[in-house]
């Protein structure tokens, strides 16, 4: 039996199928870090930085990744945004903030504060991998780096573990059509634009967007959104550190500069310091 569709119905069907192809569930990694506005102080024994009694907040680059995921949902390109955090009990605060900023629900992979302090990007990537495989997500968004360790390794490690394509340091994200994303990033020579097929891993750069503020009504609504806690041990993750911190030290103090009257005096000063050959 043959069924003939009118041109208008066929066009509608194609459009409907296209919408199905581009909609996705996005998992967004958010990390609790010392607030970017806080002056970091090194512990007297030089084993790390002081975190007790210090203001913490969501990693700024993760905020950008979350904002992009929420925007894609508002554009009807995503069906659900789920926030993820790997850390101690207080990481739940960051997840509630993510819920207030537009995430639909949250997943907290819990570890002790001592384990969280020694956690490495590989541990986080392994936790993300387990959640993705269990929950069947179509994309994972994270910040390009965390401002506490500056490792910038979670996204590429996760892409390797999942065997997914990766789009790192994204400064612009668009629908690429046919179940893909078109991602632009800034490079030294200009802009680099690639297309990645879903599922994929994406990391957000600074100029991707301007994160929204969590309004009071949304903060209240966030309290009713689901937040699921899962122990890292339940996921079978080995939390043994692969690296150890030998010493944490303050950066060297910069010496005060000086003024010169003209170029001749500048050259003379540079010669005195041995920075210019006579």
TrEMBL record:
InterPro entries: ETF_a/b_N, ETF_b, ETF_beta_N, Rossmann-like_a/b/a_fold. Its main location: mitochondrion. Residues 46-239 form the Electron transfer flavoprotein alpha/beta-subunit N-terminal domain. Keywords: Electron transport, Mitochondrion, Transport. SUPFAM superfamilies: Adenine nucleotide alpha hydrolases-like (SSF52402). One of its GO terms (molecular function) is electron transfer activity. GO terms for biological process: amino acid catabolic process; fatty acid beta-oxidation using acyl-CoA dehydrogenase. Gene3D superfamilies: HUPs. Pfam families: ETF. It comes from the Eukaryota. SMART domains: ETF. GO terms for cellular component: mitochondrial matrix. It is found in: Mitochondrion matrix. Heterodimer of an alpha and a beta subunit. Heterodimer composed of ETFA and ETFB. Identified in a complex that contains ETFA, ETFB and ETFRF1. Interacts with ACADM. Belongs to the ETF beta-subunit/FixA family. The electron transfer flavoprotein serves as a specific electron acceptor for several dehydrogenases, including five acyl-CoA dehydrogenases, glutaryl-CoA and sarcosine dehydrogenase. It transfers the electrons to the main mitochondrial respiratory chain via ETF-ubiquinone oxidoreductase (ETF dehydrogenase). Heterodimeric electron transfer flavoprotein that accepts electrons from several mitochondrial dehydrogenases, including acyl-CoA dehydrogenases, glutaryl-CoA and sarcosine dehydrogenase. It transfers the electrons to the main mitochondrial respiratory chain via ETF-ubiquinone oxidoreductase. Required for normal mitochondrial fatty acid oxidation and normal amino acid metabolism. ETFB binds an AMP molecule that probably has a purely structural role. This is Electron transfer flavoprotein subunit beta.
């Amino acid at each position: 039996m043959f069924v003939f569709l009118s041109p208008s119905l066929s066009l509608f069907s194609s459009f409907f199928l296209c919408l199905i192809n581009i909609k996705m569930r996005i998992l967004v990694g958010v990390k609790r870090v010392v607030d970017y506005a806080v002056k970091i102080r090194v512990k007297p024994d030089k084993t790390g930085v002081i975190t007790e009694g210090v203001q913490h907040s969501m990693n700024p680059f993760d905020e950008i990744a979350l904002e992009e995921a929420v925007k894609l949902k508002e554009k009807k390109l995503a069906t659900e945004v789920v926030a993820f955090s790997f850390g101690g009990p207080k990481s739940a605060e960051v997840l509630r903030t993510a819920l207030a900023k537009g995430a639909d629900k949250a997943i907290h992979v819990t570890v002790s504060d001592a384990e969280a302090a020694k956690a490495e990007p590989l541990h986080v990537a392994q936790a993300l991998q387990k959640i993705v495989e269990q929950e069947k997500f179509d994309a994972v968004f994270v910040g390009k780096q965390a401002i506490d360790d500056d490792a910038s390794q979670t996204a590429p490690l996760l892409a390797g573990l999942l065997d997914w394509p990766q789009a790192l340091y994204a400064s612009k994200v668009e629908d690429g059509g046919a179940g893909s994303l078109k991602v632009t990033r800034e490079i030294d020579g200009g802009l680099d634009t690639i297309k990645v097929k879903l599922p994929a891993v994406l990391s957000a750069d600074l100029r991707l967007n301007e994160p929204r503020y969590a309004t009071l009504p949304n903060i209240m609504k966030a309290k009713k959104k689901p937040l699921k806690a899962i122990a890292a041990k339940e996921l079978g993750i080995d939390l043994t550190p692969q690296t150890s911190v030998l010493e944490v030290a303050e950066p060297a103090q910069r010496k005060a500069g000086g003024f010169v009257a003209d170029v001749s005096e500048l050259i003379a000063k540079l010669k005195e310091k041995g920075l210019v050959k006579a």
